[in-house]
Amino acid sequence: MAQNTFDRFYGVIPAGGVGTRLWPLSRAAAPKFLHDLTGSGSTLIRSTYDRLTPLAGERIMVVTGEVHRQAVCEQLPELDEQDLVLESEPKDSGAAIGLAAAILHRRDPETIMGSFAADQVVGPLDVFLEAVREAVHTAATGKIVTIGIRPTVPSTGFGYIRAGERLSIDDAPSATAVAEFVEKPSEDVARKYLASGDYLWNAGMFVAPTALMLKHLELNQPELYRGLDEIAAAWDTPQRDEVVARVWPTLPKIAIDYAVAEPAADAGDVAMVPGVFTWDDVGDFAAIGRLNPASENNHLTVLGDGARVYSDQASGVVVSDSKRVIALIGIDDVVVVDTPDALLVTTEDHAQQVKQAVETLKASGEVDVL
Amino acid sequence: MAQNTFDRFYGVIPAGGVGTRLWPLSRAAAPKFLHDLTGSGSTLIRSTYDRLTPLAGERIMVVTGEVHRQAVCEQLPELDEQDLVLESEPKDSGAAIGLAAAILHRRDPETIMGSFAADQVVGPLDVFLEAVREAVHTAATGKIVTIGIRPTVPSTGFGYIRAGERLSIDDAPSATAVAEFVEKPSEDVARKYLASGDYLWNAGMFVAPTALMLKHLELNQPELYRGLDEIAAAWDTPQRDEVVARVWPTLPKIAIDYAVAEPAADAGDVAMVPGVFTWDDVGDFAAIGRLNPASENNHLTVLGDGARVYSDQASGVVVSDSKRVIALIGIDDVVVVDTPDALLVTTEDHAQQVKQAVETLKASGEVDVL
């Protein structure tokens, strides 16, 4: 290798996705990654950035929507202008991660990128970093490496990755081949996956040489590849705006899993490093209950600076984004999300149904609160 | 008689009581009687006033707190200055109704007053008026007359009145004597009361010659009587403010039931006219559910102009005093009361516990929202 392996590493943080199931906390204008959902004092994107710096330093690129430029810059003041990639409109993860790969590849074709979504909760740090280190070493052997999460419950909310045979890579003792990616299973199937030990959660974490990412993108999504390559060629030139305005809107919308990971796995080019750290994509308010243990005294998880919550025989989750007094009386496993212009009252068991509520509100024209 | 019986009639509306169980809708600064709790388009005090005008015309006196002067005048623009009696501090119903009696008696000793609380829901109007007419005729024979409500359920939330023998009064065929007033019963006892047919709810409605009211007040609460008489003597003179400021704060706090009605009943001076109209004191949010039938489509009672409520598998009561979007998902018999600075989430079964929440908030110093 021309460089030390870790000198080649570049973090990429795709920061898209509204987090519809976290409405009304998460909004189009203030998506999930701009919130502190764990009471840590940091927003999810800030925590994601801080998690990568021990390995990447300031070599971290963020891909997000043009509308979030200001909020992201406030969260990440150290972010260099060249590391901020703004989408004029959302085009799914294939275009977002593909563009980062194409730009980084133009700047340095030896780059190994590591893509980690901006809205996940991970810990402890040292276990995460050890998995990323193994993934970088594995990627350096010419693999697209996904970090699979060792499941703790038979979740039906995540896709799974079936581990193949163990690879023999120096400095990556736990790396395996990937036999296949599988979609979100039924509960019965999820239970079998958990029992078998061969299936890990697909957390959407990818570490790979940009060259290999782009090779598979070109093979499987030639139109997307050509568009991204044209944009990347213009990116660090005065033509950027003109080319982006012309090409970006024409790009197909496709997830990176379908555009690259799954076909590359079929070609035998994907490896996996198991992650034994805690991981959650904070998909709904029930997750917030899991991630923020309730106080022993009142069985309530309360999230929000200066929340003024009174409870009597109540349990569940309260997210307070206002300074209002909230009184909860005689109600169990409740979810109350209080924001200045919208209020959600549901139960932990119905947390997934929030998505439909948002869709109905959108269809009814109540778009000012979405 | 010197006058036609109805020329002697004067309506009195005591408008006190915060309605703690209706927090956070009802507040110290915006008590129950200033709200429209039935979706009628009228506040309770406005409806109470309108209910009396067919019999009293504009001969209606309102007794309320000094702090509610402006709100009451906005609700009742036709109220004459001489018909507005303002309390500098609350002194319970004995002083409030007693002062009205004393002032009206000074102005015309032949007055028959009819006292009807400002925060009750009554209907239909013609049945109510017929009961009041009988009560006025009965009062004219020298009785304190209470209108008892024929119970429809074995309520443990109201006091009861046991009917005595039927009186023989022209124009008041249904009037009876009162055997006794009884306190709120246990559920078993309430069931017996309902079955017997002799027990009616005590709705706190009194029709009586002021002279007789004051006679019993003097007998049973001489200190209160003397204070009220001194204030009444000064009321329509320039000395009013000085005398009120000196005497009112010294008056004992006692309910009119104990100060007058119960001892007068023991003396055989109280009669009852049964009311077969619908009556509710709107004591809690469960009452609001009863009084405002849920929409057939979504099983939700929604109160509030411009409420923006989305519901999915939810039932109960929503009171919206804000313009926020409220989304309810998968929750039954819920009570959500949304105001600009305070939010209540409870269930219809726990509606009575709201009072304790308010007491705890008061003890915690959260008085800005009470």
UniProtKB/TrEMBL annotation, chains A, B:
The keyword Transferase belongs to this UniProt entry's keyword annotation: yes
GO molecular function annotation: mannose-1-phosphate guanylyltransferase (GTP) activity
Superkingdom of origin organism: Bacteria
Domain spans labelled Nucleotidyl transferase: 11-294
Gene3D superfamilies the UniProt entry points to: Spore Coat Polysaccharide Biosynthesis Protein SpsA, Chain A
InterPro entries tied to this protein: GMPP_N, ManC/GMP-like_b-helix, Mannose-6P_isomerase_type2, NTP_transferase_dom, Nucleotide-diphossugar_trans
Keyword vocabulary terms for this entry: Nucleotidyltransferase, Transferase
Enzyme Commission (EC) number: 2.7.7.13
GO biological process assignments: GDP-mannose biosynthetic process
Pfam families recorded: ManC_GMP_beta-helix (PF22640), NTP_transferase (PF00483)
Leading EC class: transferase
Domain MannoseP isomerase/GMP-like beta-helix: residue ranges: 314-361
UniProt KW Nucleotidyltransferase keyword: yes
Protein name: Mannose-1-phosphate guanylyltransferase
Annotated organism of origin: Zhihengliuella flava
